[in-house]
Specification:
The chain is α+β, with helices and mostly antiparallel strands and 396 residues long. The chain is built from eleven helices and 19 strands. It binds 8-demethyl-8-dimethylamino-flavin-adenine-dinucleotide and P-hydroxybenzoic acid. It holds the Pfam family FAD_binding_3.
């Protein structure tokens, strides 16, 4: 097989890139190691920035999102016995976020791609990328026990943080800049209507908690736990009691409880691989960078990366100019580090470190009160949370 752009990984980044390249007339093939059911069911992000929503619409993948997605005009910060609502459109000149699960985005993109192309191969595990710094790189993969190769003009690594492409550049040609955190998120899905119409981010004396949702009937909740926590160690009753104690800190607000249908513990990390290019290999999405989930940025960054790549390959295809491709790494790293900063800020402001001293807690509360008391401070948070507009993927 051969193609112009070989895409490693069929998560949201790889699938959307394929859709955008197809729209620009650039040939590509997606190789995904897992089966379709696994990729469609993997529980992950829930919040789409306005720019992400606009891109999905522009490439014809927005129909079900527009029907079923929940448009949110605000988030609530809960701390120190106080609740403050960050009004997103008022503070950002009209930008909002949409609750539409990553599982649904992926489902929509897969069904479009299987119906209209370009080729998408499941159960195709990429084992190596050869000649990334030559004119004709080769992607080696294994499918049904058989080794195969895809000859490409360019390769894009969209294979996530545990993929193979981020380790293709030799150590002398890449830098990994990262930070770990001394806590994890315990996440549950529950068959119960959300307790609030909007997301609640809570700083409590017992630690961070987040109330999110997947639909008007399904809640998604998280609370911070020590690293290494085994989800099986918590009974359902203990989980609900812990969540209630972290959220029920203002007025007579009560948490709705119901059957828990899924649970997991997620460690968190900030990490960026620089540069996001090595020869003819480009990295996008979690393959290039990850953020802790507190700012809801990961999926949106992945989308913005592939929008830029689609513009760059489109420009090359249309008039032979590699200028956008050459600028890709620098262009994206600037935006990536903005999101890294915001995600780290949200995480370190809302979580309690093990044995955190009272001084550190007072600083967190001072920062949260500042956001609630100053339109400027609130606007800074709102702008980052609602996101910055990516360029038009089908132009440029
Ligand atoms: P993915 O989704 O990890 O997809 C990578 C794909 O590559 C495949 N793969 C391979 N394929 C072929 N050969 C190989 N050798 C391969 N190795 C791997 C994998 O099977 C997979 O299908 O990366 P992508 O596409 O870059 O997408 C990134 C997002 O998934 C991620 O950033 C977000 O989920 C992060 N995130 C959130 N982002 C948001 O914008 N808003 C949120 O509200 C939000 N919440 C979250 C999150 C991530 C979470 N977890 C689990 C880390 C909440 C959580 C709990
Ligand atoms: C989610 O709904 O999974 C979610 C929402 C907001 C976040 C992280 C995760 O900051």
């Amino acid at each position: 097989m051969e193609t112009t752009v070989g895409i490693v990984g069929g998560g949201p980044a790889g699938l959307l890139l394929a859709r955008l390249l197809h729209a620009r007339g650039v040939a590509c093939v997606v190789l995904e190691s897992r089966d379709r059911g696994y990729v469609e069911r993997r529980q992950r992000a829930g919040i789409l920035e306005q720019g992400t929503v606009d891109v999905l619409r522009a490439c014809g993948a927005g129909e079900r999102m527009d029907r079923e997605g929940l448009v949110h005009d605000g988030i609530e910060l809960r701390f120190d016995g106080r609740a403050y609502r960050v009004d997103l459109p008022t503070l950002t000149g009209g930008r909002r976020v949409t609750v539409y699960a990553q599982t649904e985005v992926v489902r929509d993109l897969i069904s479009l791609q299987l119906a209209e192309g370009p080729p998408l191969l499941f159960d195709a595990t990429v084992t190596a990328v050869e000649g990334a710094d030559t004119a004709r790189p080769v992607v080696h993969y294994r499918r049904d026990g058989v080794d195969a190769r895809l000859d490409c003009d360019y390769v894009v690594g969209c294979d996530g943080f545990h993929g193979v492409t981020r380790t293709v550049p030799p150590p002398a040609a890449r830098r990994v800049v990262e930070r770990g955190y001394p806590y994890s998120w315990f996440g549950i899905l529950a068959d119960v209507p959300p307790s609030s119409d909007e997301l609640v981010y809570a700083h409590s004396p017992r630690g961070f908690a987040l109330a999110s949702m997947r639909s008007p009937h399904v809640s998604r909740l998280y609370f911070q736990v020590p690293n290494g926590t085994d989800p099986a160690d918590w009974s359902d009753t203990e989980i609900w009691a812990e969540l209630a104690s972290r959220f029920e800190t203002v007025g007579d607000w009560r948490l709705r409880t119901g059957p828990i249908t899924a649970r997991s513990v997620l460690p968190m990390r900030s990490s960026v691989t620089e540069p996001m290019r090595h020869g003819r290999l480009f990295l996008a999405g979690d393959a290039a960078h990850i953020v802790p989930p507190t700012g809801a940025k990961g999926l949106n960054l992945a989308v913005a990366d592939v929008v830029e790549l689609a513009r760059a390959f489109g420009r090359l295809h249309d008039d032979g100019s590699p200028d956008l491709l050459d600028a890709y790494s620098a262009t994206r790293l600037r935006a990536v580090w903005r999101a890294e900063h915001f995600s780290h800020f949200m995480t370190s402001t809302l979580h309690l470190a093990p044995d955190q001293d009272p001084f550190a807690t007072r600083l967190q509360l001072a920062q949260l009160h500042r956001i609630a008391d100053s339109r400027h401070a609130a606007a800074e948070l709102a702008e980052n949370y609602a996101g910055f507009a990516p360029p038009d993927p089908l132009a440029g």
